[in-house]
Specification:
180 residues; mainly alpha
Length: 180
């Protein structure tokens, strides 16, 4: 069990890192949004273009990263929405059983399905052709837009981290069940 707990702690450490990166993405999104607004109005006033679609798409990418990097962090800290009002009054052992069963049956299944259905679109975005070779990346249809492959790849990272954090939570729940 000690080896599994060490493994769980390493996953938790990575999740904390991604959680901090998610928080930083929020700040960057706000800063870029603020710049875009000021630059657009100042540009109209002066007749000069100070902003571009690249910055607008970057803001969209950072907004997406906020969620994709934050999913596992939210699970780790138990900040996910719980509808069941009974849960708060249960003992730690019963909570651990409920979480263990829920994570094992539903969250792992959700993550695996999420990874399965996104792997092929992500590879196509990187330019994977039907014959297995790679061509050009998927690009934004907007002028000065960003490539789509990197942000689509973060969907896999988000689901992968959520899956890893689910395993970490299962390990911690088993420990709670064994101790009580």
């Amino acid at each position: 069990m000690q080896t599994l707990l060490k493994f769980s702690q390493r996953i938790d450490d990575i999740t904390e890192y991604f959680g901090k990166a998610s928080a930083f993405c929020v700040l960057l999104t706000i800063a870029i949004g603020f710049y875009n607004v000021i630059a657009r109005y100042l540009g109209r006033f002066l007749g000069i273009k100070f902003t571009s679609n690249m910055l607008i798409e970057l803001q969209w990418y950072l907004f997406s990263l906020t969620f994709l990097l934050g999913f596992a962090y939210i699970l780790k800290h138990g900040e996910n929405v719980r509808v069941d009002f009974l849960y708060t009054n249960w003992s730690p052992k019963i909570k651990a059983w409920v979480d263990l069963i829920g994570h094992s049956l539903f969250l792992i299944t959700f993550c695996v399905i999420g990874l399965y259905v996104t792997i092929h679109p992500v590879l196509q975005s990187w330019g994977r052709l039907p014959d297995g070779t790679f061509g050009t990346w998927e690009l934004s249809p907007d002028p000065d837009g960003l490539p789509r492959a990197p942000i689509k790849s973060m969907i896999l990272v988000g689901f992968g981290m959520l899956l890893m954090q689910t395993f970490s939570e299962i390990i911690k729940n088993v420990k709670v069940i064994q101790e009580n």
